[in-house]
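Researcher: Structure for this, please.
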Amino acid sequence: MNLESPKVSLEKSAQYLFDSLSDVRNFEKLMPESIAKFEVIGDDAFIFGLKGMPEIKLKMKEKIAPNTIILGAASDKLPFTLKANIDSISEHASEVQLFFEGEFNAMMAMMIKGPISKFIETLAENMNKL
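Model: Predicted structure, token format:
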């Protein structure tokens, strides 16, 4: 299952966004209001929970400065990645788009597609809070 957020334009440099997203503590600022839990569990990992959903542990998988950050699920039960693509528009402006990729059975995919789509849209929309 592949989902993508709309592209979001920001008045921030690509390097600034890359540095901000490289620090997992900053993801708390991006979370939707329905967040029930957010806990940093190391320099490269955090756990979050949304109301009515199981808690998910995300771990930094790859960083390619200043354009790509890839987070992945720390559990093999729900294997997925969340990738942030950062495109520089000018010295002080950039665009960010999030991509969710996961392998789920058809039933699971049907159940989580809506909530995950909304979740990554919210993360993208909240990028201006960084």
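Researcher: Any notable elements?
Model: The chain has three helices and eight strands. Residues 30 and 123 are 5 Å apart (CA to CA).
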